[in-house]
Amino acid sequence: MSNVVSLSSDAAAAFRERFGESGSAHVGWSPGRVNLIGEYMDLNNGFAMPMAIDLGVCVVLRTNTTGDVRGYSMAFDEAAEFRLDDVALERIPGWARYLAGVALLSRERGCDVGGFDAVVHGDLPIGGGVSSSAALSIAMTMALESAASWSIDALSAAKMCQEVEHRFAGVMCGIMDQLACRTGQPEHAVLIDCASLETSAVPVKSELASFLIVDSGVPRSLHQSEYNARRTECLAAVEAINALGHPIADLRGLTAAMLAEVGSSIEPHLARRCRHVVTENERVLSAHAALTHDRLSDFGGLMNASHASLRDDFEVSIEELDSIVSLANEIDGVLGARLTGAGFGGNAIVLARPDAAVGAREAIVGGFAARYGREPRVHRIGSTTPAQGGPSLPLR
Ligand code: GLA
Fold first, then answer.
1. Is residue 325 predicted with pLDDT exceeding 60?
2. What is the pTM of this model?
3. Measured in angstroms, how far is the CA atom of residue 211 from the centroid of ligand 1?
4. Which of the 8 DSSP states describes residue 191?
5. 241, 248 in Cβ contact below 8 A?
6. Is the distance from the beta carbon of residue 180 to the nearest atom of ligand 1 less than 6 Å?
7. Among 70, 214, 305, 333, which has the highest number of CB atoms less than 10 A from its own CB?
8. Cβ within 8 Å of residue 12, ≥6 positions away
9. Is the CB–ligand 1 distance for residue 346 below 6 Å?
């Protein structure tokens, strides 16, 4: 039985127990994502190439006209109650803010929702850099679309869920996660041009490439503040470069030649941030070409270079993630590794030849445990189930 079927039936059982059988409940599902390459590029209008994964979040939802909201998170074993029209965000748990945010912004876009009962369930590690919050927002949107007979196109849904992060969670994220969760398809990565917001599906051949997600187990405590700080630094770099007589709208517009000219005239840490963005953008395009032409070793090399750039130039890595990447690269059949997502803890992603994946997993767990005295959680990515909603799941 797929995890979507078992998760949604467990969530439906919890829903019935807590909120009763009456009326009709609807289910929304969203996969999480890993970013294969192109980190912090959405903040700079560059390219990114994430992939939806076979872990995700489901929301079982029943709407009402009273305006009352009752929510329950199975992961946190926590309940939340509030009025949708009068929600005090600081008084409700983090996960419930996403439910409120999606409902309120959907309403602004024409969805007829008064209040609702909802149960949230999932198998995606929470706060680990694999987009648990984007998956929650997208799953909630899918459930609401079905429950309120309303529809929103994929790009608008992704933009709305990004706005939920900004306005209801205070994280000034880009749009990569929401687009990846909403549009991801089985056996494909998504190449996103974050300037035009065009997406294209890129085949990932499971007979050539296996991906492991390795959880450093380090909570991303600095994530929110440092993430927002990186965004501010990128904007400051654009301003500084403009002031030097190079009119660019964003760091996507910065070329290597321009950076060579202005790099020593701007603050050193801003020059490092710029170097990451310029080189990472080139790496995504090279990685896309490598994947398309089955050059997986080249792809792995680009992942390693991306990690080094995130560690040294963008400065978002931590020792444990660096250790996973170097441990992985010592293993036969591993082609590359890097931190994935915003960094400051969370997960690394490892690319291995399929015949080497099981051995790689054991060696990484062993090596990490020898160094840190605890075993990291490792997940081998399987085929995703796309985001969807309906009276019961999966629909396809
Ligand atoms: C987080 C954000 C994304 C993106 C990545 C870094 O996942 O939500 O928008 O900026 O970090 O690439």
1. yes
2. 0.96
3. 19
4. E
5. yes
6. no
7. 214
8. 25, 27, 60, 119, 392
9. no
